[in-house]
Fold this sequence. Notes:
Shape: globular
Strand content: 5-15%
Oligomer: single chain
Order of helices and strands: EHHEEH
Largest sheet: 3 strands, antiparallel
Structural class: alpha+beta
Helix content: 40-55%
Number of helices: 3
CATH architecture: Orthogonal Bundle
CATH class: Mainly Alpha
Number of strands: 3
Mean pLDDT: 81
Number of domains: 1
Low-confidence stretches: 61-66
Radius of gyration: 13 Å
Strand order of the largest sheet: 1-3-2
Amino acid sequence: MPKLDQFFRIQEAAEYLGVCRNTLRNWCRQGKIPEYRHPVNNYRLFKVSDLDQLLRGTEQAVNNATGVRLPTHPR
């Protein structure tokens, strides 16, 4: 397993994506984004690289639908 500093907890991940925690949970159930579990406390964890990939995919879908290029997500 990669280092824990490469992961966000659910609240951090939701804020990073600009969605609520329940939306993120639903996306996990739907298979839109993988989730991992903390080895000690079993909290949901999300890889930052997976979140970035989801953002890029969302940006690409919007670009294709509207023909407008959106600015990249700030880090």
